Amino acid sequence: MDRTQLEQLERRLLRERERILRSLGRFSEQSKLTRESSDADLSSYSFHMADQGTDAMEREKSFLFASKEGRYLYRIEDALRRLYNDPETFGICHGCQKEIPFERLDALPHARYCLDCKLREEAA
User: What was the pLDDT predicted at 35?
Assistant: First the structure.
């Protein structure tokens, strides 16, 4: 993989990292506002059972999205560590040790496996 391709992947990873951090920041702010508004209420309980269910579902959905984004952020940061620590081996499949095609890395810049090895891993 040449230097321009590595730079393109680095920019892409950094953009994804910033997007995820903004998303997690919005979740944090939203969570904080929800807690503050519930503290301002005379009671922290909803008046109707359907409201309680809706509130619980929305909180759980937000936590699920934040958890998913957190896992994605971990994979992005792992890819950046691999890129910065050992750029010569970035883009080498962790399974077969062959070069991952640039098209795959362009679509999924944090990929650790070539498509064949990933399909084998998922089938097992």
Answer: 57
| CB-CB contact of 99 with 93 (8 Å) | yes
- Above pLDDT 90, what percent of the chain? 61
> How far is residue 79's CA from residue 83's CA, in Å, rounded to a whole number?
6
In the three-class reduction of DSSP (H, G, I as helix; E, B as strand; rest coil), residue 99 is classed as strand
Q: Which amino acid makes up residue 65? A: F
The model's pTM:
0.75
Residue 25 domain-assigned (yes or no): yes
Measured between its terminal Cα atoms, the distance across the chain in Å is 30
Count how many domains the chain has.
1
Rounded CA Rg of the chain: 20
The pLDDT assigned to 45 comes to: 55
Q: Is pLDDT above 90 for 107? A: yes
Per-residue confidence (pLDDT) for residue 38, from 0 to 100: 54
Q: Which domain holds residue 57?
A: 3-91
The per-residue b/e assignment along 11-30, b for 16 or more CB within 10 angstroms, e otherwise, is ebbeebbeebeebeeebeee
Residue whose structure tokens are 């919005």? 26
